[in-house]
Structures are given as C-alpha cells and as structure tokens.
From TrEMBL:
It holds the Pfam family Kelch_KLHDC2_KLHL20_DRC7. The lineage of its organism: Eukaryota, Fungi, Fungi incertae sedis, Mucoromycota, Mortierellomycotina. It comes from the Eukaryota. InterPro entries: Kelch-typ_b-propeller, Kelch_1. Keywords: Iron, Repeat. It comes from Actinomortierella ambigua. SUPFAM superfamilies: Kelch motif. GO terms for biological process: glucosinolate metabolic process. This is Galactose oxidase. SMART domains: Kelch.
C-alpha cells in the first residue's frame, strides 16, 4: 500500500479542524470546520476535489439556488449517489440540529425536516438504502439515541433498543452501514429484511480541557440490526425496535494481538464488505496515524 501526498495549491481549502468529507463517484466533497481553538467556524463553502484529474486542485462548488447552511464545525455529513447531507454541529455559540441537502444535479441547497433530537455536535451519520441514520453526539452530555430519516417519504423515525444491552452514550464516533440481511432478532419478524450498522468507539466523557484535551474513550464495537420496513414494525410508542449486539474484536494471526485502541475523532467507512478505520485521538491525547481493516465476515 502506498500513500501519495498532494501538495497544497492556491485553491486548497485553508487549514481546519472539525470539517467533514464525503465521496460521490470520483469526487471528494469537503464542508465546514474551524481554523483554530476559537469556536468561530469558517465560511459555508462546499469544496470538491476530482481524484481522476491530473491537476489535483480543489474548487468551490457554487450553489445555483437555496440557502447555504450556517457556518459550523463538528457537524456530520453523508452522501448518496447524487446528494450531500449536512446535519447539526457547532456555530460560533451553541449547537444545531438542522438538516440540509445539496443536490449535485440541480446545484440547490434545501432545508429538510428537523430531526426529533436536541441540537448537538459530534454526532455520527451514515446514508444507506434511502435512509439517513444519526446516532449519538454531544448536547452538553453524551447521547445514545438513534433516529432515521427516510429520504423518499421525508419522515423521521425514532428507535428504541430491544433490550438493556446497548451501546453507551458517545460522541465523535462512527456508524458504518453494512449489507442488509435476514433478521434473527426477536424484536421483529424473523422473515423481515433488516439493515445492519456498526457503532464504533467514540468519547464517553469529555475532557475538562474541552477540545484541547482527550476525554474518556470507548474501545467497543456494536452491531445494530433494525427492520427495513419503518411502517409495519413500529412498537406501540411509534418507535422502531433496534437490536444491539456487542462485537468481539479478534486480531489476525499476523497482527500479533494488535487491536485498535480506544479513540475518538477518527474516520471509518465501508470498503469491499469490510470496514476501514483510521487515525483519531487516543486517551493520552496523542494523534493516531494507524489504519485497520475490520473484517465483517
């Protein structure tokens, strides 16, 4: 495996932290962030980078219509094959719980229905099968809720763990969608098709130094299984059941028991049926430059 360093140019986005990136086709998209310790976010520019062009330069994606999201950092971003979604995060003061969509085909920003959760930063969000999943985040305390947005109906669905066995509250973590499967959970019909998500690591308690220090991090991985049908399988309270199961990590024989340490602020994404995990912040406040391939077989 080799790493290619792309040198900055005059079009490269300014240095930042708390930004987000998603990929659609051969292009990378970057949004938001802040330039330093101050909680002043940068402008709401959406940048794109064409990975197939020899020029290796960034460009600002100009919106043709709609209102740009307010500047923010520590938000969440996810993408379908044609749209980019931005949720929540931190403006100069306070926190947000708004949801925005940018359509690549029309070049338009639009505001989507507000999710039924409190404003927060550091939430995890993923797109899979016409659904947006938002999990956890920091509202002044760590959260553990999971909500789903159906992009075809425009409706939000809240969920409820099917047992007390569930991930602890966390932020600056990741959720990664996996291939759908036939459900075996007792919370809904065994014949129902189900979606599966991995919930990975994250911060369980913040540092007293705020963003200048490391908090207490989780080192666990959970599998969340929930029905694909949001309408017919809701409970009496209108929430969708979700079955959580803790995943035991095992090192490959060649890895000499080298497992990912507890961390937050890292990257994780699906790749060829597996999950790639990289970097982040460790509990001793050091920045990590490692990379792991988690097999889901």
């Amino acid at each position: 495996m080799s790493v290619k360093v792309i040198s900055p140019s005059e079009t490269t986005p300014s240095p930042r932290v708390g930004a987000t990136m998603s990929a659609i086709g051969n292009r990378l998209y970057l949004f938001g962030g802040r330039g330093g310790k101050e909680m002043t976010p940068l402008q709401s520019h959406l940048y794109s980078f064409d990975t197939e062009k020899a020029t290796t330069t960034w460009q600002v994606v100009e919106a043709k219509s709609g209102k740009l999201p307010a500047p923010r950092s520590f938000h969440a971003m996810a993408a379908s094959d044609s749209d980019i979604y931005v949720f929540g995060g931190c403006p100069t003061k306070g926190r947000l719980n708004d949801l925005h969509k940018f359509s690549l085909s029309s070049g338009a920003w639009s505001v989507l229905p507000t999710p039924p959760i409190t404003p927060r930063g550091g939430a995890a969000m993923a797109y899979h099968g016409n659904r947006l999943y938002i999990h956890g985040g920091f509202t002044g305390k760590e959260e553990s809720d999971l909500v789903i947005y159906d992009t075809t109906t425009g409706e939000w669905v809240q969920t409820l763990p099917s047992s007390a066995n569930a991930p602890g509250a966390r932020s600056v973590h990741a959720i990664v969608p996996l291939a759908s499967s036939s459900s075996s959970s007792s919370s809904f019909s065994n014949s129902a098709e189900s979606d599966r998500l991995l919930v990975l690591f994250g911060e369980g308690n913040p540092s007293h130094l705020g963003h200048e220090g490391a908090g207490e991090f989780w080192g666990d991985v959970w599998m969340a299984t929930l029905p694909k049908s949001s309408s017919s399988l809701k409970g009496e309270d209108g929430r969708l059941p979700v079955h959580y199961e803790k995943v035991t990590l095992e090192a490959a024989e060649s890895a000499q028991d080298n497992l990912p340490c507890p961390r937050g602020w890292f990257q994780a994404l699906p790749w060829n049926g597996n999950v790639v995990l990289s970097g982040g912040l460790a509990a001793n406040n050091t920045r990590l430059n490692d990379m792991y391939l988690l097999s889901t077989a």
